[in-house]
Amino acid sequence: MPPRRQLIAAGLAGLVAAPLRALAATPLSVWRDPNCGCSTGWVDHLRAEGFAVQDQVVPSVAPVRRLLGTPADLLSCHAGQVDGFVLEGHVPSAAIRRLLAERPAGVRGLAVPAMPVGSPGMEVPGQAPDTYDVIAFGDGPHRPFMRFVGSRPA
Fold this sequence. Notes:
- By secondary structure, this protein is an alpha+beta fold.
- The protein has one domain (27-153): Glutaredoxin (3-Layer(aba) Sandwich).
- The chain contains four helices and eight strands, in the order αβαβαββαββββ.
- The chain has helices at 4-24, 37-48, 62-68, 93-102; strands at residues 27-32, 52-57, 78-82, 85-89, 107-112, 131-138, 143-149, 152-153.
- The longest helix is centred in the first third of the chain and has 21 residues, at 4-24.
């Protein structure tokens, strides 16, 4: 029989590892155009941050956006969905994690319109990243959810 310390250590390791495995296994669907390189960069960012991305290359993202109910004034270059929430554009993983943790009432999704420089997938070597807002949409008017400089919260 293993010593008590080993059993306790193994139990604590399991308690710590379980939430990390659950987070790493969070499925996230992406729909993108086959000719968009920045969308591939966003998918790479999400995978590096531990999301289980289902990357779906489609001839047109427009029908998916209509199905998801993405507001026309927030469109960018690709769409996504995670745990019932809609994603549009280069939404950083930190904003997605906060959305999933808080599940704010009335929020149907997050968007980063206009493809800001430095957002995940839009990095430009030698160019300073933009400061931009991740926009929450759903019930009521659109509103800022988080502010970022590049892929880091501001």
